[in-house]
Every structure is written in structure tokens, then in C-alpha cells.
Amino acid sequence: MKGILIAGASSLFLSLFLTPLFIRFLAARGFGQPIRDDGPTSHHVKRGTPTMGGVILILGTTLAYLLSHLVDGVGISASALLVLGLIWGLGAVGLLDDWLKISKGKSLGLTSKQKLLGQLIVASSFAYAGLHFVDSFHLAPISKNLSTLRDTSIALGTILVIAWVTFLVLGTSNGVNLTDGLDGLATGASIMTFLSFILIGVWEFRQSCVFSHVAKCYQVRDPLDLAVLAAALAGSCAGFLWWNTSPAKIFMGDVGSLALGGAMAGLAVTLRTEFLLVLLGGLFVIITSSVIIQTVYFKASGGKRVFKMAPLQHHFELLGWGEVTIVVRFWIIAGISVAGGLGLFYAQWVVS
């Protein structure tokens, strides 16, 4: 448990104090965020705000996780290393996208196909590798069985598991990317999701089949170490939010949003809570759904729209809501969704 506190506190410290240094570094080189001309006009004042802050999120998380193990003297787990690899891989795709936008001076980086291909390669590699590295208890980081609130008896097989995990990673990483449109919105919602994974990891560790032989024990490899990684992610996001809240001094960019989304999916998969991710990342699901609904209806109706603009947060901006009002209300939605997910997770243990 000490590792969780060390990881969370050190990542908070690193992110909080490294971010302003990174802001000055980016500003000195003119690495500012291009803004879409077809977006809300209120966003035009944000043009030139330093971006790619996700680099600090990834570095802070990684260094804090490693520091916690150095201090605690506990070995690094395969599960956490795989999730870290997923974070770095998706972060690299996002970093390339951000760099192309900055170098072109337009809100156009990688094409949608190029970005999707990069995410696909990283996500499928994570899924394939996660089926290996079996420990002495015959547990791999990723199970071949479908999981809801825990592992079920529904066997998917290697190909279906890789396809399913890849879908989850792509959906979640793009969901966070779509949510990252207002100052602090994605960062604050991510903190809540990562905090929930800390609680789930600790609970699964205490009720692990390795230590407990009750009927409802959890067959999960490395749940406590995944909780340590989740704490490092939550701490990094909290420190970054200090500078990312309105008016933002820095944006996380695609390097941050893709990495954080991948981290959520990776933790959900390795903790055997795949379907619970729908609630734990409820805000991201709602915002992604708004884009899907808008796109489908626009094509089906010959140009009509359900929302004034998608993603959903921009619809409310065009209705006249203030940015801070939208962010806080969406955080409330995210918090309720996370609370519902944790309640469902615990209820499954009590009832079953």
C-alpha cells in the first residue's frame, strides 16, 4: 500500500513543478496549439497556447511508478509494464500528430487513417503481448475470457481477445481525445477514473485467489501493482490540472489524450473489468456517442444535425453556457458515473 502513496504523491509533485518549466520551453519555441476556424469563436483566444503537455503526464507517471518501486523495494510487474508500454506507444502516435499540427501551423496533423493505423498497431501489440508472460499461478496480464465486472466463463480465444482489446483501446483513447476540448475537462474526468482503478486494484488484491480461497476471489495478475500505476496516473493528472484548468496555460494535446485513454482501457482489461469501463469512463462514452449520433444522423437526414456542434461540450458552448460551467457540470456527470461503476463493482461482490 505504501507504493500507492509514493506513486501518487511523487507524480503529483513532478507534474505540478515540471509543467511550468515545460510551458516556458514550449513558449520559447513557439510550440502553440492551432485552433479550428470552424469551432466556437470563443476558442480563438486560445490560439498559440503551449500544447503537448501530455509529455509531462507520461514522464511524471513513469518516473513516479519507478520511484515507488525503488523506495518500496517491490519488483515491477509484467501487467503494469505492458500498460506503460501502451501509454508510451499511443503517446508517440499523439506526439507525431501534435508535432505535424504545430509545424504546419494548422489544426491538421496525421490523417484519420494514419492516426487509426498507429493506434491499431500499438493496441494490437499490447493485446498480443498481454496474453503471454504467465506467472507461477498460470495467470497472464490479459485473460482469454470475457470480463464484465470480473472474469466470466465465456472464452473468446486468442484472435477474438486481441480484436476485442484493440477495440477497447481505440474506443477509449479516441473518447478521451474527443473530450479534450475544454480547459481541464478531460484531465479532471481522468483523475476520477484513475482513482476508481486504485480502489478496484486494492480490492482485487485483498480478495485475490492467490491469498484467499473463497468462492468469489479474483483471478487477476498483479492487481496491487496496477493500483500503484493508477495512482501515478491520477497524481500526474492532478498536478497537470493546476496548469490546465481555465484559463489553461497548457494543453495536453493528442500525446496526452491518446495516452490517458489507452491507460484507462489497459487498466480495465488487466483488472478484468472491461464492461465496467463504460461506467468508469461514462463521460467519455457520452461525448463519443454524441459524435457518432451527429455523424450518423447528418448522413441519414441529408445534412440535418441533432446537436449544434459535436462533440457535446461544444453544443452547450453554442447554447451560451460558459466554459467553466460546462466543465464543472460535466465533471459532476463523470463523478456520478464513476460512483455508479464502483457501486456496481461492489454490489456484484455482495450479491453473488
Summed up:
This protein is mostly helical and 352 residues long. It has helices spanning 2-28, 54-72, 78-104, 112-130, 158-179, 185-206, 223-244, 253-270, 277-280, 282-300, 312-318, 323-351; strands spanning 145-147, 151-155. It has one domain.
**Sequence of secondary-structure elements:** HHHHEEHHHHHHHH
Number of helices: 12
- What is the mean predicted local confidence, pLDDT? 92
- Low-confidence parts, pLDDT < 50 over ≥5 residues? none
Report the sheet with the most strands, covering strand number, pairing sense and barrel closure.
Answer: 2 strands, antiparallel
**Beta fraction:** under 5%
Strand order of the largest sheet: 1-2
How many discrete domains? 1
The best one-word shape is: globular
What this model shows, in words?
With 352 residues, this protein is mostly helical. The protein has one domain. The chain is built from 12 helices and 2 strands. It has a two-stranded antiparallel ribbon with strand order 1-2. Strand 1 and strand 2 form a beta hairpin. Helix 2 packs across helix 8, helix 5 crosses helix 10 and helix 7 runs antiparallel to helix 8. The longest helix is centred in the C-terminal third of the chain and has 29 residues. The chain starts with a helix and ends with a helix. The mean pLDDT is 92.
